[in-house]
Amino acid sequence: MRDSERRVLDAVDVDGLVEYLCELISFPSVGGQESAVQRNIAAKMRALGLAVETWDVDFEKIRGHPAFSMPIPRSEGIGVVGSYGEGKGRSLMVNGHIDVVSPGDESKWRYPPFKGTLSEGRVYGRGSSDMKGGIVAALYAMKAIVDSGTPLKGKVMLETVIGEEDGGVGALDAVLRGYRADAAIVPEPSELSAVPAHAGVMAFRVTVQGKAAHASLRTDGVSAIDKFLPLYEALKRLEAERNARIKDPLYAGYDVPSPLSIGKIVGGEWPGTVPENLYFEGRVGVHTDETCDLVKKQLESAVKRAADADPWLKTHQPRVDWNGYRFDPAKIPADHQIMETVKTAYRVVSGALPRVEGKTYSSDMRLLVNLGSTPTMIFGPGELREAHSANESVGVESLEKAAKTYALAILRWCNQPG
Questions:
Q1: H or E element: which one contains 280?
Q2: Same domain, 34 and 172
Q3: CATH at residue 318
Q4: 5, 99, 191, 357: which is the annotated catalytic residue?
């Protein structure tokens, strides 16, 4: 390791990193409320010596794009990019989303969800793992490079975007504005594993028709709840069949690498009435060697086969709608140069190579790869099981390793010729 690299690693301010993460957590940046925290990040970047660009997201301009998805209404949105370097070598982008999901029932939290709390080596709060922790780790990696006075031949950019949780509108806007790089890292919670692939996902709704009747004459009606059951069983079989075909070694550690999950069921209006209507909503995974359109046809066919086997449903076909979010899968070669750069940087920091695996979740990586032609991987602190849960937290040790790995990877990537 070069002396300049050692100086940068020694300059990583872990205490300051934790303090600023707690500050960012205090912004309740749930979908549609991201502007205040974006302004804070832009100001912080300027204070740390980065060149900063901000812009207002033009929702109307990008609304017609096939990748546009924004179920949460927004009247404003801000994009932020902080950069450092001469721009004469290779460029590297770190892309992170600043929006978080709702904390849910706050009584189930050990600490207030929107007050970053350091306890027993972990930072608690909504967004600590997904993914303000990763953003701050990358920011403080850049800070260490600036503070150490280490020149950068290329250019590193930290891009913070809105709207990832409901479709990626912020990343889409940034890509369409021309923000690209020779490679990129998305600091989603990966448990510090190096991730060259992630799944796609689609949301769907199925509407089931029954026939209303007085509950005391139940057989005069047809329960939409009863008719949901064969459809549910058909979708469970579809999940099993699809996953049996997946032999990808990047997903060998998952018992269900491409899950199909029903997340919401609404049916009936009154306890004394046979329910005449029901709808259920779910999420279906799309593996990296599949397309969303292929999986869409598979699910629709499974619903139709189940309906055709039932006398009532055959003449009252369920309706399948796809008006929720839709994320495509994304993949780069597992031995891509950016993967090797991050892996070797992590080995210097931790003493061991990281795991290499695919992820079953989706992310803004897909937009950088599929639309921005930017080879992108995921590498971040935190655990997926912490994300979207009560008492979400991230380990300080994980944050430190991530920041130092980012710093070393930035130096080694951006100081190579373009």
A1: strand 277-286
A2: yes
A3: 3.30.70.360
A4: 99
**pTM, full prediction:** 0.92
Q: Quick check: is 364 catalytic? A: no
Same domain, 279 and 400: no
Are the C-beta atoms of 45 and 12 separated by less than 8 Å? no
Active-site option among 159, 164, 165, 182 = 164
- Same domain for 175 and 254, yes or no, is no
Q: Are residues 375 and 311 in the same domain?
A: no
In this predicted model, what pLDDT tens digit does every residue of 162-208 receive, in sequence order? 999 988 999 999 999 999 999 999 999 999 999 999 999 999 999 99
Output the domain CATH number for residue 141: 3.40.630.10
Long-range pairs, 306-309, Cβ under 8 A, ≥24: 306/230, 306/231, 306/233, 306/234, 307/231, 309/230
Rounded Cα distance, 262 and 69, in Å? 21
Residue 3 designated active-site? no
Could you give the number of structural domains in the chain?
Answer: 2
DSSP secondary structure string for all residues of 207-245: EEE-B--BGGGGGGSB-HHHHHHHHHHHHHHHHHHHHHT
